[in-house]
Amino acid sequence: MNTGVLGGGALGLTVAYRLANAGDKVTVIERETEVGGLAAGFLVGDSGTYLEKFYHHIFKTDTTIEALIKELGLGDKLEWLRPVTSMWVGGKAVQLDSPVAVLKYKPLSLFSRFRLAAGLAYLKLEGNYHRLERVTAAQWVKKWMGKPAYDKVWGPQLAGKFGAVADTIVASWLWARIKDRTTQLGYLHGGFQQIYNRLAEGIRAKGGEIMLGETITSIASLPDGKVAVKLQDGRELTFDRLVCTFPSRLFVKLAEGLPADYAAKYNWGQAYGAHCLILALNQQVIARTYWMSILEPNYPFLAAVEHTNLIDRAEYGGSRLLYLGNYLPMDDALFSKTGEQILEEYTPYIKKLNPQFDRSWVTQVYSWQAAYAQPVVTVEFKDHIPPHDTPLPNVYLANMFQVYPHDRGQNYSIEMGNELAARLIAEAKG
Ligand SMILES: Cc1cc2nc3c(=O)[nH]c(=O)nc-3n(C[C@H](O)[C@H](O)[C@H](O)COP(=O)(O)OP(=O)(O)OC[C@H]3O[C@@H](n4cnc5c(N)ncnc54)[C@H](O)[C@@H]3O)c2cc1C
């Protein structure tokens, strides 16, 4: 089989690696100049160490990525840690990352803390997310955890992530976040990029090709059952079968000859872009806390993540690394600003986190952005998740918009990649 895989992120590379190992002639086509997609890293300064463009860690429940890490010979680099997660509220960091921390969470009354704890325990134990599919997270939290828990904990977090549409997010999305997340976090020393580099090496070793810096502009079925894709410069490549890992809406835009009802059903919904400003620093901005969700209104970023409170800064040539992250509609003005402009706008707010902060602490500014980075998972979302089979023969769609009810995550893309590859291998064997 001559198989094309569109997208060199976690999903595309996993499918391609499995198919290449099963004997397919695989070609991966990726727009960026490196593999890894949303989980890709860059080399920090001259440390030779990768850091993710967008903050990444894994949870204890992420067993599929853990298995892949071990399979690729990277198991000794995976470390499980127990960092501090806090909320920035009332001008200070308040730890909120365990049942004990919930019960000590001063911004809520004792009664509200118990309601919050009971609601969280229910979500952890509930096995059937379908019970939470018809109601929004805002409605569910207000009813079962109480309005104070919504106003002081969940509302600001949902607003930070989803802005104006925060109140439309479905409760099953919240269920999955609580269910899937653990206090222990895993990090791959040297960066998750190493997984994707190893997958790419493995694909090449089996005779596969990884085409980087190539943008797909159309996908079409040919009369003989083969599939043709066009590249930005007009070149056309033909495959026996094609796996597309692009967002569903992008697939609908690029694929020719789709039935109108399919296009209408799946060219649907909103996704936000992601932005991370990463500061390399010679001083620590946030003491102790690794992950800090900003619950105060009107901050220009929703999370401040001091990566070097998780991983030793010695791994990055001694630099401290701070992410300031955002999810925003893809046409937001932030996406057209330079890192320096954004730093200037953020500086008064960084000073609120640490009044001593000074521009001279910053040794390097990195600004990263990506489109289609966060699906807006509303109550109707589940009715607009396309199946892997598409109306185009031998064309399969697999993407992170299909991992519902889970939030996106490398683990779920890798799991989907494993499952789809196993199916395609079995079908090819007949
Ligand atoms: C801010 C942020 C934080 C995150 N935090 C975590 C975390 O802590 N832990 C975790 O596990 N996951 C996290 N994730 C999610 C994780 O990164 C994704 O779930 C995973 O990387 C998705 O992989 P994918 O292959 O499904 O999609 P993608 O990585 O999006 O891959 C799709 C690929 O297609 C390419 N492409 C798109 N259009 C074209 C085109 N026209 N032509 C050619 N190529 C194209 C893209 O460049 C991309 O490489 C985070 C994501 C973001 C944005």
Q: What features would you describe in this structure?
A:
The protein is α/β, with parallel strands linked by helices. Among the domains are: 2-41 and 192-269 and 379-429, FAD/NAD(P)-binding domain (3-Layer(bba) Sandwich), CATH 3.50.50; 98-180, Orthogonal Bundle (protoporphyrinogen ix oxidase, domain 3). Helices cover 32% and strands 25% of the residues. The protein has helices at 10-21, 63-71, 99-103, 110-125, 137-144, 147-162, 171-180, 193-205, 248-254, 260-266, 339-353, 410-429; strands at residues 2-6, 25-30, 41-43, 50-52, 58-59, 78-81, 84-89, 92-95, 185-188, 209-212, 216-221, 227-231, 236-239, 241-244, 271-281, 289-294, 303-306, 320-328, 362-375, 395-397. The strands form 5 sheets. The chain has a 7-stranded mixed sheet, with helices on both faces. Strands 10-2-1-14-20 form a 5-stranded parallel sheet, covered by helices on one side. The chain is globular. The chain starts with a strand and ends with a helix. The model has no long low-confidence stretch (mean pLDDT 97). It binds flavin-adenine dinucleotide (FAD).
